[in-house]
Design a protein that fits this description.
Blueprint: H1 2-14, E1 23-25, E2 29-36, E3 45-54, E4 60-66, E5 70-81, E6 84-89, E7 94-96, E8 101-104, E9 109-116, E10 125-133, E11 138-144
Parallel strand pairs: 2-11
Antiparallel strand pairs: 1-2, 2-3, 3-8, 3-9, 4-7, 4-10, 5-6, 5-9, 10-11
Length: 164
């Protein structure tokens, strides 16, 4: 019996942190594993990733977000076009169909935290309020985690992104 308990404890220790991720829930909206990644000093932008599940019976739209850690937050989509990765803001928001989930992840939909007040550091939690059309606002925390096992590679060059 002790061997089984030790084996189970060893397996639990090997489970990646994302498996034990946190979630935030309202009646209609479930947010799974909100996270960001560290930013080097002087970097004006960070990112936000999460899964939005619409548990309601009508579509909802993520229309914005706010955090005290950035001057503004916008919703973007990254896409491959002619062999080049590019991104564009979703000015009308991101629709989550009833009963479905949409993942904000690297190389896809994501939140841009613009004009960071200070760098995002691994291990900290960043407060973020998500705003919806069709559902109430929801306060979550982005956990700053390493990407690709600690790599801080950028998914694309954001230097051309215009900030107001």
């Amino acid at each position: 019996m002790k061997v089984k308990a030790l084996f189970a404890a060893a397996l639990i220790a090997l489970i990646p942190s994302w498996v034990t991720a946190h979630e935030f829930v309202t009646e209609a909206v479930h947010i799974d594993h909100p996270w960001s990644r560290p930013t080097p000093p002087g970097t004006p932008m960070g990112v936000g990733y999460l899964v939005i599940k619409n548990a309601g019976d009508s579509d909802i739209t993520l229309i914005g977000a706010q955090t005290p850690r950035a001057a503004s937050v916008s919703i973007h989509e990254s896409m491959m076009h002619d062999g080049m990765m590019s991104m564009q803001p979703l000015k009308e928001g991101l629709t989550i169909p009833a009963g479905e989930a949409v993942e904000l992840k690297p190389h896809g939909y994501h939140l841009m935290l613009e004009k960071l007040v200070q760098p995002l550091q691994e291990g900290e939690s960043i407060p973020l309020t998500l705003e919806f059309d069709g559902a109430e606002a929801l306060e979550v925390e982005l956990t700053v985690e390493p990407l690709d096992g600690g790599s801080m590679k950028e998914e694309m060059d954001h230097s051309g992104h215009q900030m107001e």
